[in-house]
Each structure stands twice: as structure tokens, then as C-alpha cells.
Amino acid sequence: xxxxxxxxxxxxxxxxxxxxxxxxxxxxxxxxxxxxxxxxxxxxxxxxxxxxxxxxxxxxxxxxxxxxxxxxxxxxxxxxxxxxxxxxxxxxxxxxxxxxxxxxxxxxxxxxxxxxxxxxxxxxxxxxxxxxxxxxxxxxxxxxxxxxxxxxxxxxxxxxxxxxxxxxxxxxxxxxxxxxxxxxxxxxxxxxxxxxxxxxxxxxxxxxxxxxxxxxxxxxxxxxxxxxxxxxxxxxxxxxxxxxxxxxxxxxxxxxxxxxxxxxxxxxxxxxxxxxxxxxxxxxxxxxxxxxxxxxxxxxxxxxxxxxxxxxxxxxxxxxxxxxxxxxxxxxxxxxxxxxxxxxxxxxxxxxxxxxxxxxxxxxxxxxxxxxxxxxxxxxxxxxxxxxxxxxxxxxxxxxxxxxxxxxxxxxxxxxxxxxxxxxxxxxxxxxxxxxxxxxxxxxxxxxxxxxxxxxxxxxxxxxxxxxxxxxxxxxxxxxxxxxxxxxxxxxxxxxxxxxxxx
Length: 503
Hints:
Strand order of the largest sheet: 6-3-7-8-9-10-11-15-14-13-12
Helix content: 25-40%
Structural class: alpha/beta
Number of helices: 16
Number of domains: 3
Number of strands: 19
Oligomer: single chain
Shape: globular
Radius of gyration: 23 Å
């Protein structure tokens, strides 16, 4: 394998100079105009008078905010699976399958050639930020390991395929570049997660892995499997891949997993880099240290809008964009994309930590807001409180999920239940409950008010579960491995009951 990192360093230098000169508002206006111009003759563009749109204000006047269900019902389902000139010009040949993170029905997200190109460039930018930060990087001197779902694609119609976004990307990797990627195609096709891990672990230990990417929870499970295969080796990544430089993670909040990754990285030269990918497009890449926000990709074919969280569901919510958004405000994100999404609500909540350049932190999902009495707990607050509760007992958080507890007969108050899987010898549910309750009150004034005097809301119920509980639960739902995520907040009472049955 030829080390082509020198080419990456050259590109990184050019890209960094380009980003220094980039004007955020100008870049986003340019993207929007280009998107509208490309789609003006589609059914959607004609219906929304794209030919007359000249700026952001005119666009927002003509195109309302929509969710997936709106697009599916009005624009995709009547033509599915052959979407030609519906919301994006040409035939959509690929659909990324996504169930979100709440266990809902499968979503079919269009993937256009333009979106594929944008995603590839975003992946190169991830490596470019790394090469820029580490001047003597040799990240391209070995294999890049992507721990994702199966790359198998299913046929929906003539010339139309569907599968994990990772599978679509793998199917489109140029032949000349395949030697730089791991796993090999025959292994990547394996759909059974346990079989896949059992095959990947010994193979990966024989490869010179320089970077690895995936969802944090599944990466940790994979590391544990490596350790089981080699009990004679230290539980450190450096014992398997001494030249590992980069761990790319995303898809869920990293806070619950940070301590366990720190243990695996002890003695390693590898760096962590968070990314913000979605089935709908690649949004941001960390270009600084943890917690300092991810830099938004402003020239990658996505136009971003920001809606104050408290205005979601209002008849005419305020719609900011990069030119008008403010730092420190909790926003829901909407995107218009080069695959035919228009003012599409992603379901994520973010907070901008800087505006020039725009950097953001993902704070949760709109569906991850837990509120039974008006307390409106967001994902970031739940993560922080659960982590504090576990560490106060000397434990290490593995996974957790929370849901609402309906009122019991004769009891008007309601509350929350937290199912927590953690490692440690001194875990104590009573102590964890007290710390969790106090942390939530400190982080959220509405929660504190409702819990004051235990008048408006019951104290949280904490259930500590044994090792592997969440893995078994995900497997029982057919959601084991790949890009599936443990839902942090469960609104579906039947789904919550299925988890509580394992406790």
C-alpha cells in the first residue's frame, strides 16, 4: 500500500486557506441559489415557484418547514420507488434507510449523485483537519476501518437500490481506492452483527489500521470483543494497532462514552474527532478540541435554517439562517439539500458556540426532549445528569434510556424512569437516584420548580441493569450493531415496556 498522506497534506493546506477566506453568509447564500436553480424544473420547484426566488427571504416565504412524513406523503410516496424529477432533478437511484433513534418506521432518504460527491468531500475534510493538526501524520499509510452496518443493498425497483448510507458509500468506492478501506467487501456484506464482529476482530488485528470510525457504543463493543480474543494483551488500542492515529465518532452524544474511550486510548497516539453526519447529509466536523464545537460545512450542498426550540409547532416559527442566527440559543435544525430536501426538519437540536466560523454542539433531538410536567429536559441535560449519577458511585456509564412514568391510581403526579447500564463494584441505586435528581434540578430550572417539595413531580426511578442488557434489547428488536442507536428517550410506552421486561 502506497502512503499517499503527502497528497492529503497538500489538499489540507489548500482547504485551510479556503476556509480562512470563507464568509459564512455569502457561502450559504451561494449554496441556496445553486440548489434552487438546479431544482427549479422539478415538480417541487415548479409548485414552489423556484424560478422567482432570488434570496433567503423569498425562499422562506415560498417554502414552509416540513418533516419526513410531509415529504413522504405529498412528494415521494405517490411515485415511490421511482423518483424522477420529483424534488430533485433526475432519477434517485439510492435511498438511505433510516429509522431514526426512537424505533419508528423505516425512512427512505433520497441519495443523489450530488449528495454522494458532497459526502465524499466531507470525509476527505475529516482527514484534512487531522492532517493539518498533526503535521507528521501518516494516516493514509494504512487502512481506514469503518465499523458500520451491512453494505448489502436491496432492490426497490428497476435501477433503484436501498440500504445503510455506509453501504451505499462502500458500493461507490472507486476500485483504485478500495485497498485503503477495511473491511473487505465480502465481510462488509455480512448482515448478522455478531457474525460480522466475530469475523472482523481477528482480521483487523492483522491489519495496519490507521483510522477507525463508527458509533461510539458499537466501537466499544468491538474493542471488548478484541480483548476477549486476546486476554494476554493489555486492554489498550495500542496493543492491536500501534500506528492508529484517528478515531472518528458521531451519531450520538459522546459524553456518556468519554471515560471508557480514555481507558482504551491510554498509551496511544490516536486522536478523537467528532463528526455530525446524518442520512440527509454531512453537516459538521470537529476542527478543535472536545467540547469546542464542530465546524459546519457551509459549501457542501446543504443550506441550514435554525428554529428556536420553543417555537417548534407554532404556526409561523422564526426561521434563522447563518446570517441571522445567534450563539448560545437552542435551535432545531432544518436543511435544504442537494438530494431534494427543502426546509426539512432533521429532528436534531443544536447550539451554536461561534458564528465566524459557525461551530455547533449537538444538544439532542426534538424527540429526545423529556417532559411530563413542563420540565422540558433536553438530551444534553439528561446525558450530564446520568453521567454524574454513575460517576458519583465510582462507576463507568455503558448505556441508558429514559421514559415517562404514567400516574398510578390515586396519584396525580408523574415522573421519569431511567434504565442505566454501568460497570463498577460500588453502584448504588439509591445514591444514583439522589445525585441524578439533584443534577437535573441544577441543570434545568423548570425541573427544579416541579420537583420543589415533591409537589409537582415524583422523584426519578433509577433501575441499574446488568452487563449486556441493552445489547440484548437491541438484538431482540433487530437493531443490533451498525448505525442503530440506543434511544435515549423512549416516548412509546410499549417500547419502554419491552426494555423494562429485561430489567
